[in-house]
Amino acid sequence: MGYVLDICYNTLMKKRYSIICASYLVLIKDNKVLLLRRYNTGYQDGNYSVPAGHVDEGESVADAMVREAKEEVGLLNKNMKKTIYLIRHGESEGNISEKGNMDHSPLSDNGRKQAEFLAKRCAGLSVKAVITSSLERSMETGRIVASSLGLATESSDLLAERRKPSAVFGQVIESPDQQKIWRSVWDNFHIPGFRHSDEENFEDLKIRAQKALEYLALRPEETILAVTHGIFLKVIAALVVIGPELDGRECRRFMSTMEIGNTGLSVFKYDSEERFGRFWILSTWNDQAHLGE
């Protein structure tokens, strides 16, 4: 079982701060932790440490961890390939309410039927793990699918929907005040650092999408079904398609042109051996064949 700790050290240089990041791998098996004894390195020789190393320019923390595991202890030499089925949750009560901005709304009756159709679809996918966000509509969708597969569900806040401005909760979507807030959020989404109030902005979403991809890449299962949410799923897809150079303007364009329906199934493939400059590939988007659409 591996955990990545992203540890950054601030170094003062020429009156400016640079951030030096290191990736630490903690491997646990049978209540034992793998340690290395440092030897002939010139630094802390004779002491014990977990496998670790600096993150190179252009590397993610997860990619650095995989490289160090290969270089230092000969682990992960086998090419890791994964298929991740990212699903938008079934239709929720919030989706059909005039007050749609409800974080913890359950599935509607139609949403449960959609999840049941999805479960039948997933029967032939060899899914080894079902992971959901911590929001009820995602967990309920995941439970329906996992139950049909004989699996338990896990949850991760990394898969949650974008955090909205607090002022919109419980308000009618089409009200002038609501429209004014959302227009401000949308029109300024591409501006670095912009926030209307307490919502997640582009930078927040991009960082969380990167962490979600790293989390999924480091899971031991080769085939994973993850139930998430529409906006956040679009951000993940934009990051995979555009890459780490994704900016707010590109992300906004992607979000406005890529439709994702309830229980829409998207397939992401991960290969630890970099192919054409990429580790992730989006191979299928918003497949709703299980709904007859």
SSE layout:
Blueprint: E1 2-13, E2 16-29, E3 32-33, E4 36-37, E5 48-49, E6 52-54, H1 61-73, E7 81-88, H2 93-96, H3 109-122, E8 129-132, H4 136-149, E9 153-155, H5 176-187, H6 202-218, E10 223-228, H7 230-242, H8 248-257, E11 265-275, E12 278-287
Parallel strand pairs: 7-10, 8-9, 8-10
Antiparallel strand pairs: 1-2, 2-3, 2-6, 4-5, 7-11, 11-12
Descriptive report:
By secondary structure, the chain is of the alpha/beta class. The chain folds into 2 domains: 2-73, no CATH class; 81-291, 3-Layer(aba) Sandwich (Rossmann fold). The chain has helices at residues 61-73, 93-96, 109-122, 136-149, 176-187, 202-218, 230-242, 248-257, and strands at 2-13, 16-29, 32-33, 36-37, 48-49, 52-54, 81-88, 129-132, 153-155, 223-228, 265-275, 278-287. Strand 11 (265-275) and strand 12 form a beta hairpin. The two termini are 39 Å apart. Residues 1-14 have low confidence and may be disordered.
In short:
The chain is an alpha/beta fold. It has two domains: 2-73, no CATH class; 81-291, Phosphoglycerate mutase-like (Rossmann fold), CATH 3.40.50.1240.
* Name of the top-level CATH class of the largest domain: Alpha Beta
Radius of gyration: 21 Å
Helix amount = 25-40%
The fold-level CATH name of the largest domain is Rossmann fold
Gross morphology: globular
Task: Compute the number of strand runs.
Answer: 12
Would you identify the CATH architecture of the largest domain? 3-Layer(aba) Sandwich
Percent of residues in beta strands: 25-35%
Q: Report the biggest beta sheet as strand number plus sense, adding barrel if it closes.
A: 6 strands, mixed
CATH superfamily of the largest domain: Phosphoglycerate mutase-like
Strand order of the largest sheet: 9-8-10-7-11-12
Average pLDDT score: 86
Class of secondary structure makeup? alpha/beta
Number of domains: 2
Low-confidence stretches: 1-14
Helix and strand pattern: EEEEEEHEHHEHEHHEHHEE
Distance between the termini: 39 Å
**Structure annotation, total helices:** 8
